[in-house]
Design a protein that fits this description.
By secondary structure, the chain is of the alpha+beta class. It has one domain: Sufe protein. Chain: A (Alpha-Beta Complex). It has a three-stranded antiparallel β-sheet. A hairpin with a 6-residue loop joins strand 1 and strand 2. Helix 2 packs parallel to helix 5 and helix 5 packs antiparallel against helix 6. The structure holds FE2/S2 (inorganic) cluster. The site of FE2/S2 (inorganic) cluster has 9 residues, from helix 2.
Amino acid sequence: MELSEKTIEHFRNPQNVGEMENPEGLGTITNPVCGDLTKLYLRVRGGVVEDAKFLSFGCAVTIASASVLTEKIKGKEISQLLSGSDDEIISRLIGLIESELGEIPAAKLHCPPATVQAFLEAMAGYMEKERDPQFSSRIKGLIPLVSSYYKRGEEEEG
Ligand code: FES
């Protein structure tokens, strides 16, 4: 399977690439499957994600995933992004990326989860500092749960 047109489009013209000074949240994740690094920065005002940026030393799918996620979370209320059960939150965030990118080759299914983990880490950091340390621990606890999404490619490749 080849990369979808949307993936190629976001890879060639990624949105929100760059660093952010004094972000409210910063998540840095090394993909456990391939070792590629993604950093995601958040600017949060009044409970709303005002801006998001990323840096990625990863493949086309990871760059496209971070481009999509940073676009989709901008302007969203945190309560909207992080409501529901653990599974609902994780599948919502994965879904934001994958519904935009379309089908992803099995060998690349381990790429989008790293972006989701970077976002959760950034959000947990923001919550811990500024809002709700208890909710921060819950969000941090979701990061290892995203690992099941890394294994999808292995299952499909057999
Ligand atoms: Fe490493 Fe996609 S992020 S192969």
